[in-house]
Structure formats: C-alpha cells, structure tokens
Amino acid sequence: MADIDYHVSGILILLLLVANGAPVLARYMLRRHFTWPIDFGIALGDGQRLFGRTKTYRGVVASLLLTSLAGSLFGLGGLSALLFACLCMVGDLLTSFFKRRLGMSSSARFFLIDQLLETLLPVLVFMPVWGYSMIEAGVIILGFVLSGWIISPVLFLLGVRRHPH
C-alpha cells in the first residue's frame, strides 16, 4: 500500500477550495460590481451562451489572486499556485461549456461532473511537479468533492451561495 502524505493532500484540497471558492466569495462581497461575462454574452448555434451568465472576469481574477496568495502562504509558490488556479478555472469553464451544450442552466447540478474537470485538470498536471502519487491524487479529488458537499450547504445557509450545491 502506498504511503499517503496527508499534509500535502490537505494543502492541495485547501488550494482547490480556495481556487474554486474565490469566485463565490467575490460574487458575495462585490455583489453586482465587475460582473463582466467571460463569454461576452455570445450564444452558439444551440441558442445557449458559450459559458453562461455566472462565469465572470471577477470570479476568474478572484480565483487567480486568492489562490496565488494561498499558494505562497502554504509554501507552494505563488506562480505555481497561479497556474494551478488557471487550470481550475479552465476546468470549470469547460464544465460550463459542456453543461450549456446539454441545455443545462448555469445553476443546474451535474452530479460529480461539476467538480471533475476543475479538480482533475490541476491535480493531474501538478502530480509530477509536487510529487504525489495517483492514489494521493484520488484522495485529493475525493477530499475536495466531500469538502464541497459539506461546505456548500453551510455557505448557502449563511447567504454566501445562491444554491445549496
């Protein structure tokens, strides 16, 4: 059985939470300010927007800045954490793109798929960089998904999230 470095796994779960939670926090704190959509409101042939109304520059910038700061504080380096956040956001945008093509709304829940690309992409890319195993990658992804299932309803009750998922 492979040894799992729970310290590294825990830090990467926290980094994923920061990268993916920063847009939610930015929306809560800034309300209607800086809500420029990533897709500029462009709709494709299916009539659906490219990514949807909830994907904004505000959220992406918040993710990049806060994740860089968190990465520096966790000792991973700001530049590495910035790239990590970029991969999280690319994964999130890809998920939104696929959901729109399936006719799903921005707030529609897509069980496990909602978290898959935004975690899988950065975790797999950084596996050789930060030296964790495939088992640890699985622990990190599972830890993030479970953490999100616990944290999201709490943030909804506190009025930070619009939906409990």
Automatic annotation (TrEMBL):
Domain of life: Bacteria
Matches recorded under Pfam families: CarS-like (PF01864)
Matching InterPro entries: CarS
Keyword Transmembrane helix belongs to the record: yes
Keyword Calcium assigned: no
Annotated transmembrane regions: 6-26, 81-98, 110-131, 137-160
Keywords tagged on the record: Membrane, Transmembrane, Transmembrane helix
Protein known as: CDP-diglyceride synthetase
Species the sequence originates in: Oleiphilus messinensis
